[in-house]
Specification:
This protein has 252 residues and is an alpha/beta fold. The protein has helices spanning 3-24, 55-66, 82-88, 139-149, 183-193, 207-215, 224-228; strands at residues 73-78, 92-99, 109-110, 124-130, 150-161, 198-204, 237-243.
Length: 252
């Protein structure tokens, strides 16, 4: 067949494929109804807190409810004792709260998790570290501090964002939203810090939950099955349970 006929045949097949692709996509190209989401500003600028329960908090509380029995003995939480009280109950014998610079009523230790200042070695049975690591520049040092201050057999329950808008500090707070994580990165980070420990990393989310969370919709605005569906390509929230080995050597 002459070259020009081959070229014409190729172009005809290419055009036919493009037309078929256009009509076999669903929704067809150009026919998607964006509705209320076709906007340059999010529905809520406060993570959905003004509409109900933020979607990331839905996943955080689900994770903590799974591991509520780990929240026992002497517990350290960051910022406030909300989850210690909610999930620990009478299993908690002492509740401590760490903050880097604010002396709030519930704060018992003022210190920096990255440097470990003011934090005693092998003192805690459980650490609750929700939505904190993303605002610490030296993440490795912070996770290393968590390992040091846990008793052998102690448990770290940590959550941090995979897909999220940037968070801005409130009045007088000086932290900066710095990092985002993936499941594979979190697994490597915590396995390095917890040698011989029991590490599990869970990813929550899917494309619908991610879009809703970025727009600041509340968990109540999605169906339970829409929140519960998991797509490994859309990690809205990462959660880690890390157990310090019972045979971990004491650190000086």
């Amino acid at each position: 067949m002459p070259v020009d006929l081959l070229t014409k045949a190729y172009r005809w097949l290419r055009d036919r494929k493009r037309k078929l692709d256009r009509y076999t996509r669903w929704p067809p190209l150009g026919a998607l109804d964006w509705g209320d989401l076709r906007r340059l500003n999010p529905v809520s600028k406060n993570f959905g807190l003004d509409r109900g329960q933020p979607i990331d908090r839905y996943y955080i509380e689900k994770f903590l409810s799974w591991h509520a029995l780990d929240i026992r003995g002497r517990v350290l939480e960051i910022g406030d004792p909300r989850y210690t009280r909610q999930f620990g109950g009478d299993r908690v014998t002492r509740s401590d709260v760490l903050h880097v610079n604010l002396k709030k009523p519930d704060v018992t230790i003022v210190g920096d998790l990255a440097t470990g200042d003011q934090l005693p070695t092998e003192a805690f049975d459980c650490l609750i570290l929700t939505q904190t690591l993303q605002v610490i520049f030296d993440v490795r040092a912070a996770v290393g501090t968590c390992y040091r201050i846990l008793k052998p057999g102690g448990v770290l329950l940590a959550t941090f964002p995979g897909l999220s808008r940037v968070a801005r500090p409130s009045f007088l707070e000086t932290w900066k939203d710095t990092w985002r994580f993936t499941k594979s990165g979190a697994e490597r980070l915590f396995r390095e810090a917890f040698p011989s420990g029991d590490i599990s990393v869970t990813a929550f989310g899917n494309v619908l939950a991610a879009v809703a969370f970025l727009h600041g919709l509340a968990a109540e605005e999605l169906l339970p099955e829409e929140l519960e569906a998991t797509d490994p390509d859309f990690e809205v929230l990462l959660a880690v349970r890390a157990v310090k080995s019972q045979s971990a050597p004491q650190e000086g």
